[in-house]
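Sync notes, pocket subgroup
Present: LS, DG
LS reminded everyone that the earlier model was apo-only. Rerun requested with adenosine-5'-triphosphate included. Inputs:
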Amino acid sequence: MSETSAPESPESRTQAAGTLLETRGITVRFGGNTAVDDVSLTMDEGRITGLIGPNGAGKTTMFNTITGLLKPASGRVFLDGDDITGLSPAKRARRGMARTFQRLELFLSLTVRDNVRVAGDILRSNGRRRLDLDEETDRILERTGLTDIADRDVSDIPIGRARVVEVARALMTSPRILLLDEPASGQTEGETEAFAEMLAGLAEEGLAICLVEHDLPLVMKLCSTVHVLDYGSLIASGTPAQIKESPEVIAAYIGTEEVGQ
Ligand SMILES: Nc1ncnc2c1ncn2[C@@H]1O[C@H](COP(=O)(O)OP(=O)(O)OP(=O)(O)O)[C@@H](O)[C@H]1O
């Protein structure tokens, strides 16, 4: 991301204008364990929002609740102002929600291209029946820098690039919000740099991105807002600069030596 950015187009101004996703008072329990405790947070169009916290803080549980894989004990999820708490993951996907998984969920014996192409079915079932899937797949492969390995089996490529394949597959559904669960894990430094540039570009085009990531320098560089979970509770929300200074956040990360970087 460059320091001096070009003037915003009218489109990007309106796209960046507001809250797209909101959670209100989300609580999730597993038996007697409260994994997420009364968490309210927002994610904006055209912005990258970070969701961080030590291991077991509740980040993936929040993702699973937002995407509909888990039902909260209490609380609501809103997309574009609509209460979607009762909707299935498939219906949320049709409304523009896409995600990647911490443990890769790719078809290992299929090529990169076919892994991306399969997601086009969601688009087709979403009223875009005449979409040319081959053309759209090629466009997404190009956009995500995967064209050079498009014909290789996923089992045959490095994990860092397989993570990008997951993002490409999510983009194939033409999402409005993209939730990424530790997408940089396993990437080389060079891969993470290219990845960061791609995410910044996607946000500039209007996409809302939520980033769960243990690579804190990456989070601090990309995100306009960062939410911090600790033992299931939201302990801080703010700009990266505010988060780095927060005594609660520093205390939560003591021993990990990560947050000050
Ligand atoms: N399916 C489950 N059944 C029981 N407990 C669970 C389940 N999933 C998560 N938990 C517990 O909920 C808490 C939050 O876990 P979660 O995976 O959401 O944390 P996280 O912040 O994503 O952690 P990490 O950074 O290690 O991925 C933990 O105490 C975890 O053990």
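DG: The two ends are 18 Å apart (CA to CA).
LS: The chain has two domains: 18-96+175-261, 106-174.
Action: DG to write up.
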